[in-house]
Design goal:
With about 100 residues, the protein is an alpha/beta fold.
């Protein structure tokens, strides 16, 4: 399935396939979400697809986790509004690391 994400005024194509279709059962996602209910449902859905999910609930936790094991993640999925910052600034921080 191919779809586009909007980021500002740029469209970015994104390919979405199951991990099993890619032959990669070891995909790892760093998931940053402060809403527990949303995080539980999303984590469950990702885990059901064979994805290893590491969840943190704020920018500070995300930065700590990234410094310790950032090279192990295939994807960072983050919320825009977090208790100690915003997802856009955190995204820029990740790009700089």
């Amino acid at each position: 399935m191919l779809f586009s994400l909007m980021y500002g005024k740029r469209k970015m194509p994104v390919m979405s396939r199951r991990c099993s279709e890619m032959g990669n059962d070891d995909a790892k996602v760093l998931f940053i979400e402060d809403d527990d209910t949303l995080a539980m449902g999303t984590s469950y859905a990702l885990s059901s697809e064979g994805i290893d999910v590491t969840r943190v609930s704020d920018c500070a936790g995300a930065k700590t986790c990234w410094r310790r094991q950032g090279d192990q993640f295939d994807l960072v999925l983050l919320d825009v509004m977090l208790p100690d910052g915003d997802g856009f600034a955190l995204c820029e921080w990740f790009k700089g690391e």
